[in-house]
From TrEMBL:
Keywords: Hydrolase, Magnesium, Metal-binding, Nucleotide metabolism, Nucleotide-binding. HAMAP family: Non_canon_purine_NTPase. The lineage of its organism: Bacteria, Pseudomonadati, Pseudomonadota, Alphaproteobacteria, Rhodospirillales. The gene is rdgB. One of its GO terms (cellular component) is cytosol. This is dITP/XTP pyrophosphatase.
C-alpha cells in the first residue's frame, strides 16, 4: 500500500539551489516544510544507479537515514535520441565539477554535429523515502527537441536548449509557472502528489 506523507519537515535531497526552489514551489500547497540536504550539511551520495529511478531512490534513502526525516530526491536529465540517450543519467556530470551548464549545452551541440534528428526528452524520477527505508518512486517525461543556439535565461541546467513538443519557447524562455505546467518534474509530481500527498 502507498504510504502518505504525514506533513511537517521534508528534506529535499539535493544541493542544487534551482532544483530545491522548483520542488519547494511545487510542494508549497501541501504543508511540507521544505529543507535542503545542503542546508542540513548532508553529504551527497555517489550516484551509482543505472537509471533515473535507481539514483533518486539512492539519494532519498541516504538523506532520510542521515536526517531521520522523510526525504524527497529527484534524479533527472536530458536524453537525446541522436546520442543514444546521452547525457541521460550523466547529465549533471557533463557540466563538470564547476556545474557549468553552458559548457554542457555546448557539449551536446558539438556531439550532435549536423545530425538532423533533434528529438530529445527530459526525464524526472522522484523518490520519497522514510528513515525506515520505505520508498515510493514516480517518473515523468516531457518530449521535445534540441535547439541551438541556447535561448533564454529562465530555468536551469539544459533548459535553454530544450524546446518542448508543440511549443515555441524553450524551457529557458518560459516563465516558471508555464514550465511547471508541462515539465517532466511536473508530470512526476502529479503522480507523487496523487499517491502520497492526496
Amino acid at each position: 500500500m502507498t504510504r502518505k506523507f504525514p506533513g511537517g519537515r521534508l528534506v529535499i535531497a539535493s544541493h542544487n539551489a534551482g532544483k530545491v526552489r522548483e520542488i519547494g514551489e511545487l510542494l508549497a500547497p501541501f504543508g511540507a516544510e521544505v529543507v535542503s540536504a545542503g542546508t542540513l550539511g548532508l553529504p551527497e551520495p555517489e550516484e551509482t544507479g543505472e537509471s533515473f529511478v535507481a539514483n533518486a531512490e539512492l539519494k532519498a534513502r541516504a538523506a532520510a537515514l542521515a536526517s531521520g526525516l522523510p526525504s524527497l530526491a529527484d534524479d533527472s536529465g536530458l536524453a537525446v535520441d541522436a546520442l543514444n540517450g546521452a547525457p541521460g543519467i550523466y547529465s549533471a556530470r557533463w557540466a563538470g565539477e564547476s556545474k557549468d551548464f553552458s559548457q554542457a549545452m555546448a557539449k551536446v551541440h558539438t556531439a550532435m554535429g549536423a545530425e538532423k534528428d533533434r528529438r530529445a526528452r527530459f526525464v524526472c524520477a522522484l523518490s520519497l523515502a522514510w528513515p525506515d527505508g520505505h520508498c515510493e518512486s514516480f517518473e515523468g517525461v516531457v518530449e521535445g527537441e534540441i535547439v541551438w543556439p541556447a535561448r533564454g535565461g529562465q530555468g536551469f541546467g539544459y533548459d535553454p536548449i530544450f524546446l518542448p513538443r508543440g511549443g515555441s519557447l524553450t524551457f529557458g524562455e518560459m516563465e516558471p509557472a508555464a514550465k511547471h505546467e508541462i515539465s517532466h518534474r511536473a508530470h512526476a509530481f502529479r503522480k507523487l502528489v496523487a499517491a502520497c500527498f492526496g
